[in-house]
Write a structure and sequence with these properties.
685 residues, alpha+beta, Oxidized Rhodanese, domain 1, Alpha-Beta Plaits, 6-stranded parallel sheet, Rhodanese-like_dom_sf, RRM_dom, RNA binding, Rhodanese-like_dom, RNA-binding
Length: 685
């Protein structure tokens, strides 16, 4: 207390004076003996909410004790683990208790955790657990999502800024329910921006804490699951011979980040849209052949998806695999262990919270594995919230393309976006996708039931009649892939039959095509059998080039790598599979001429196209004649094409209009005569 201060008052500090009110000492901001400005008062209020800034402890300060050790009233000591309750692990063990409750420096805390319960809770116990979790969560000021089933918890939670509520709730959970939460591993991330906190708490009842479609009697026991490896042991085992590593996450998560194991270890991406696809994938004979006799290593974001997956794999294959391992704590824990260089991890770890993704904390974010589905530039951010129009999974769209596509109301914008899996599998509608998914997963569930219960047949409600699952690449002969060291995905395909080849023919002959650019003759606008295509991956491009010379629609196709030369957009707008249209051919022109018609215009390359390629222009036509011909349609540019050597007019050129409406109106003049010649129009990029 300052000298000369009245009794019951504290000394004024540099930022304000203190006054007593109802027995509580409060700070009142002042400035030069006067009240602060409104901005200064708001700043002071913010400081009060956030609490005092952390100051370094002096060298002589005694060690700070945790609340339990300090003997504070109401402190919860760490929970002792009951004997025999720890999971089977190899290598160094991990701390499975809630982290100490010491204060963290600013920001918020996110915790990820899961816990299975075997045997599951009874219906009454389950109801009580749901009520307890929600009541205590709201009391501790939690936000986020709790997915709770009779088989356990799957949670991603945040606390309010400056609040220890997350850790307090976790300690209470362990104290109240040591079975099964005494062994739970809570993965805390501290010091995050307050904007990443959830305002609301969602408690979601579910049949499974991971939706594999294996709830109840279909769920394989976790007691026969894989061996848990701590990050350092997982890292070391990745380099051992005869090893495969399987990413159990969804394909869109793998697109932006994954493990890149050392040479000799095979990486496998199951290319799943959601977890319910896993049983069907594991039951495939080609998958089991790849895993046979191998040490199989699995990983996912936090470890939860590997629990049932490793158990199901061991039930499916038994002694056919050497051993099954899974990453304890998942990618999240691995990146905290290898926070400086990321270890064998490349790219970003997709997470189901407001961060969207994260990498190794101290490694510069230079690796971008994903790409925009529209312009194909490197991109790994799903914040545009674009989803596949057929299957509903997130797709990568860069900020620039998202702005363009959001303004497009022609049906070719965001609502027409498709993921790479749907393009590769040639799924074109939601009904088609749903039919295939229901049949595939229902058949897989029946197989799991027969496996676990040793019965010959079981009827699963919702199963569709027997039919092929996903279409195989019919007509594609097995061949050795061509060398593609630089990873080229752009191909030239020529010598195609103009009459017999269309988009469906190309997709069947060369699986993996995502974009098709039909090459038209500049003078006539007709297609004579050549295309540029974009392949989904470098591997599929190499397989396509290996088929150079094979017959496609009764003609030997010419296939070669064709990387972009010079500046330009690739792939062009309007060339995505399902949106590109084959231009008219010479046969179409002959038929139209026989009927006294003009060959129809090709479709627009993109919705806001305002430019025409004009053919059949008489040599005596001047610019004023063109303006007069198109009437009220405002022209902003005319560019005539000439012979480079002689400078002679070639009878064609480009005409650009001021607005898309002007261009649409002008397109009605296709085939009309200008100075005695029919003018042929076609959309141009």
């Amino acid at each position: 207390m300052a000298t000369g201060s009245p009794a019951g008052w504290a000394a004024a500090g540099p930022c304000g004076r203190l006054r007593r009110s109802g027995g509580v000492v409060r700070r009142r901001p002042i400035l030069a003996g006067k009240r602060c400005s409104p901005a200064r008062r708001r700043l002071a209020a913010l400081r009060r909410r956030l609490g005092p800034r952390a100051r370094p402890a002096p060298a002589h300060a005694p060690p700070v004790l945790a609340p339990a050790a300090a003997g504070k009233r109401g402190a919860v000591p760490p929970v002792e683990q009951p004997p025999g309750k720890r999971r089977r692990t190899e290598g160094s063990g991990g701390d499975r208790h809630a982290a100490p409750s010491g204060k963290r420096k600013g920001g918020i805390t996110i915790v990820l955790f899961y816990q299975y319960k075997e045997p599951p809770w009874s219906p009454e116990e389950y109801k009580a657990m749901m009520a307890w979790a929600e009541q205590k969560g709201r009391r501790h000021g939690l936000g986020g999502r709790m997915r709770i089933a009779r088989e356990g918890f799957n949670c991603t939670l945040t606390g309010r800024p400056g609040s220890p509520g997350v850790r307090g709730w976790c300690r209470e959970l362990q104290k109240e329910f040591p079975d099964p939460f005494a062994e739970t591993e809570f993965k805390f991330t501290d010091g995050l921006e307050p904007r990443l906190a959830w305002n609301d708490l969602q408690v979601v009842p579910a049949d499974e804490i991971v939706g594999y479609g294996l709830g109840g009697e279909l769920a394989p026991s976790l007691s026969k699951g894989g061996t848990h490896l701590e990050p350092k042991d997982f890292h070391a085992k990745l380099a051992e011979p005869n090893t495969v590593v399987v990413d159990i996450r969804n394909s869109y998560e793998v697109d932006i980040g994954r493990f890149v194991p050392p040479p000799g270890t095979e990486f496998i991406n199951p290319k799943m849209r959601r977890s319910t696809d896993l049983p069907a994938w594991l039951s495939r004979s080609d998958v089991q052949e790849r895993l046979q006799g191998k040490n199989v290593m699995m990983y996912c974001t936090g470890g939860i998806r590997c629990e049932r997956a490793s158990s199901l794999l061991k039930h499916q294959m038994g002694d056919q695999v050497q051993e099954v391992f899974q990453l304890q704590g998942g990618i999240d824990k691995y990146l905290k262990e290898y926070k400086q260089d990321g270890g064998y991890w490349a790219g970003q770890n997709y997470v189901f919270d407001k961060r969207f993704y994260h990498g190794a904390a101290e490694k510069p974010a230079t690796e971008v594995l994903g790409s925009c589905i529209s312009c194909h530039r490197q991109w790994d951010d799903y914040r545009a919230s674009v989803r596949c129009n057929t299957c509903g999974v997130p797709v990568l769209v860069c900020d620039a393309c998202a702005e363009v596509l959001k303004k497009d109301s022609s049906g070719q914008g965001l609502q027409s976006a498709r993921c790479q899996l749907c393009i590769r599998e040639r799924v074109t509608s939601k009904a088609e996708f749903r039919s295939r998914e229901l049949h595939r997963n229902a058949e897989a569930s029946k197989g799991v039931y027969r496996l676990l219960h040793d019965v010959k047949e079981i009827g699963i409600r919702g199963a569709a009649p027997a039919e092929p699952a996903l279409p195989a690449s019919e007509g594609v002969a097995a061949c050795e892939a061509a060398a593609n060291p630089t990873g080229i995905t752009r191909l030239f395909i020529g010598n195609l039959s103009a009459k017999r080849v269309d988009e469906a023919t190309l997709l069947k002959a060369f699986p993996g095509i995502t974009h098709i650019q039909w090459l038209k003759d500049k003078a006539s606008g007709l297609w004579y059998g050549s295309v540029f295509v974009e392949m989904a991956s470098a591997e599929e491009a190499a397989m396509a080039v290996a088929r150079d010379g094979e017959e496609v629609a009764l003609r030997p196709a010419r296939v070669k790598f064709s990387p972009m030369q010079g500046p330009g957009r690739w792939p062009p707008l309007g060339t995505a599979v399902g949106t590109s249209q084959k231009p008219p051919t010479a046969a179409d022109a002959a038929k139209a001429k026989g009927r006294g018609e003009v060959t129809p215009m090709s479709p627009k390359p993109f919705p806001k196209c305002r430019k025409f390629f004009v053919r059949g222009v008489a040599p005596e036509v001047a610019d004023r004649d063109v303006h007069k011909f198109f009437g009220a349609c405002k022209i902003i540019a005319i560019r005539w094409m000439t012979n480079k050597e002689t400078g002679a007019f070639r009878g064609c050129g480009h005409v650009e209009f001021a607005t898309t409406k002007d261009a649409e109106t002008a397109s009605a003049l296709h085939g009309k005569k200008l100075l005695g010649r029919p003018l042929r129009l076609d959309w141009a990029v």
